[in-house]
Amino acid sequence: MKIKNLLSIILVFCALGSTKAQDDLLNQLDAGAPKQDNIEIAAFKGLQICNMQSTKLPGKGEFYFIVSHRFGDLAQGMENFFGLDNAYTKLGGIYGVSNWFAISASRHTFQKTFELATKYKIANQEEEGFPLTLVGYNTMDINSELKKNDIMPGLQFNHRLAFTTQLLVSRKFNDSFSFEVAPIYVHKNLYDGILDQKSTLLLGTGARYKIAKRLSLNLEYAARLNLPEGFVSNYSNPLTLGLDIETGGHVFQLVFSNSQAMNDVAVFTNANGRWDGTKQLYFGFNMYRVF
User: Fold this and answer.
1) Which of 35, 86, 154, 278 has a 20 to 30 A CA-CA distance from 69?
2) From CA 41, how far away is CA 157, in angstroms rounded?
3) Three-state SS for 109?
4) Contact 199, 183 (CB under 8 A)
5) For residues 223 and 276, what is the distance between their CA atoms, to the nearest angstrom?
6) pLDDT tens across 105-158, in order?
């Protein structure tokens, strides 16, 4: 896919007229959010679509505690007790400094990674005005698993770092359907020159479809745009299917994905599974508890 296709997609979104949607978010999840009649209600119920970030932010003063879990390869069956033997976990939190700016930190099993992030709203979708919600999202990973040894005698702290820069562009078309596109840039200070790239450009897409009052189906996919010609990657473009379940005080997400890792750098560039049955597929969940 060419970069110009991204611009075309965004222009199509801008050309569409805004539609009016009703507020059906849980009161506790929306506590602290700004109440403005011309601002469209959030396109997504969760802070993430599945693995990708959505355009939703915490309200000012809100703190979300996040627990995410991805079991091992389901295809191995009883050999790894359907993924229980080699699961990955993410623990973290995100705090709303203001209604438009949030900070977050999390720790991941994968590579013992610490992930720091900022999320900030650039523009809101309006009922009778601007048709899109624009949000910026930046992450920095610190790989604490790397060790200075005979294999890497020159290891320095900056080698542990990897980054993503993302522009999240969403539109809530009606009360049932929302869509998001996201140009994504990933940069690694240390990478495998045979299997990986120093810098990767992707176009992410995600959608939510409401199937019941407190249930919605989510789907997301990210395509790598700058793989060298003839390059055969061991990794796949990340494809994830999810189900949002809203309960009092939190959103619970069930997830099927070809990426077991949950930090953004690994999700977008190191998804090691496939949906065609030839490689791993992972089941898990995301849970957010708001305070």
Assistant:
1) 278
2) 42
3) coil
4) no
5) 17
6) 999 999 999 999 999 999 999 988 899 999 999 999 999 999 888 788 889 999
